[in-house]
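User: Sequence in, structure out. Go.
Assistant: Echoing your sequence, followed by the structure tokens.
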Amino acid sequence: MALTLYTNMQSRGVVVDWLVLDLGIELERIEVAYGAEMKSAEFLKLNPFGKVPVLVDDDVVIYELDAICTYLADKFFEKGLAPALDDPKRGLYYRWLFFGAGPLAAASDNEYLNIKVTPEQKMHVGYGDYADVYNALIQGLEQANPYLCGEQFTVADISVGAMILWQLKMGKLQSHPTIERYVTALQQRESLQKHQAIFAS
């Protein structure tokens, strides 16, 4: 088995680094520079978007952050970072993964780019508008106990949690008691503490 992660320390690839710490696995980590290297013909064969992270598992090439995280959680299922296929929490797990990669990411990007969805446009936009997404996030986190799927910490917590932590750090997400409670639970994870220590150095 040969796992290789193409990444950059200033990219969302650091989320995979957190996951790797929680899984307790090893992989080859290759730094790809922004600019010519990331847009090179060789790298575009791995990811036509010319972005990182990209995971290569022998002949399997995976790009898109949440696809990588979900793949690793299932590949190392015995580590317990995904509900079992017959666990009712599996549906909630999928909902959070797709919410993070879809509505939350899209609404956050548009907010950052100052793209405002008008009331007339909302019906044509899958996530409605930013306020709808924020309210959905709060509603969902109110049910976290303490994690998104209850007592089991999953890769959904790593994916969505990392986005929340980053947005709070950058002042892109309005704080809320429900968000603060969830973040406090995440910060108790030894893997996140190790991750923050590594990338702060």
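User: And one key feature?
Assistant: The two ends are 31 Å apart (CA to CA).
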